[in-house]
């Protein structure tokens, strides 16, 4: 039997009502009117309606000043918008978008009222990012016309729109709204109904873990945020982003997610409740994880938790020469970094041939920098001259700092540290670049655990600015100070963290990647839609599946296993799909196939 939604003569959603004229509702109104739609903005508050009109006038005036709109276009846009405080103003709408507060009671009351106002073929969309679309639809007189339409803030700028279907939603309704999103210049992704959908579902779990990491005093707020910006290329650190979103909003979203999933990773960190109940909800309150110049200000001001400029650190040891152990990409990259900074470098491997090959790789890297104008030929030659290739670790006898970058295997690293203990002079600092193994286990392989520390560089080492400095319970203060001073000299940003699996970056990054895999495994959304959602909605430089294929699925699985083993959280168990792909030899770009297929070189 035909339904009103299946009528091919229906209008292309020419008249749209927006219910709720806060920041999001006003932004959606602007987007719709700019695309030629007649928009009815509805809010129970006359003041909110007037403020929305004023905001539209202001934002469109700025657009004219910047040459993005003409005065004629602006006048037409504003003429297409009218406001009301009465829901009956939606009677002629082809589509109603509800962006009222995140409350089932409020939203259900709106939907029940709309059932008696709008035409049978009118589509009803909720802008919720945390509540169940299915639950809202089930209580509607026509559940087949109810769906989710989740815009991102600020709506005029953000390209992503999540189109959320429940099991009750008619495909025709989804198709019509998807077409509208494309006409609005947005990139719609189709998702099923679960708390947080795709973007927020992945984002808020990550934010929650960052809050818990800070609450546990594992790392400072500044170091957590810097690690994720510099280590992952994110536009904002997680704690600064929580302040921007609103700590109370994040807590609400996480509570809804946890109620549905019962995944401990979604259980709101207690600090979110404490800050919310204290009124410290982030930028809007002038204080959250950080303190701000005024409520609503983006300017961070120093407070009692701001680190001192000098850090109060002990004096470090003198470092003039550096030994780098290994012959792979990471070892050669680290050697290049130290040599560029003026250090005498000994690059040692298990054979002279391997060491010379690693030095040759550095020569090629320096030549590329010369070709790109980043380095003079003279500076490149001087850098390469500072590197001595050696086929034995005996060459480390006089180095002040030894950095190992060998295979990520604890037994291999322990054997190497036992060798360094015998070879290196007293007082030399011994550092491991491990990304997942316990630093203290390397330290215990020596007779001088106080001299051992973690220096986790990121690949490619010459380009990536971050170094995670990992102290064990045995690391001496002057060893920590030495490494901090060395990081400054090689122009790297050092962040401090304790000796536990994943340190900062991997401990926050890989559960997020694992959750993305689970979404695909559960047929919740496609690879392409998830990648698009995180690039467009979260500001990530790469979607999770692009990143997994670059990192390598075998490497990712190994890190997931380490995290699961250390924290014993069921939510951290590697997704079976990841294990299956690794078992099949689909390891990502390096094998030509991972989550996607790649052209063979």
From TrEMBL:
Pathway(s) annotated for this protein in UniProt: Lipid metabolism; butanoate metabolism
Annotated ranges, domain 3-hydroxyacyl-CoA dehydrogenase C-terminal: 196-292, 502-598
Residue ranges of domain 3-hydroxyacyl-CoA dehydrogenase NAD binding in the record: 16-193, 322-499
Keywords, ordered alphabetically: Oxidoreductase
Keyword Oxidoreductase annotated: yes
Residues passing through the membrane, by range: none
Domain of life where this protein originates: Bacteria
One of the record's GO molecular function terms: NAD+ binding
Single GO BP term: fatty acid beta-oxidation
Record family assignment: Belongs to the 3-hydroxyacyl-CoA dehydrogenase family.
PANTHER family: 3-HYDROXYACYL-COA DEHYDROGENASE FAMILY PROTEIN, 3-HYDROXYBUTYRYL-COA DEHYDROGENASE
Protein name per its UniProtKB record: 3-hydroxybutyryl-CoA dehydrogenase
Taxonomic source organism: Streptomyces mangrovisoli
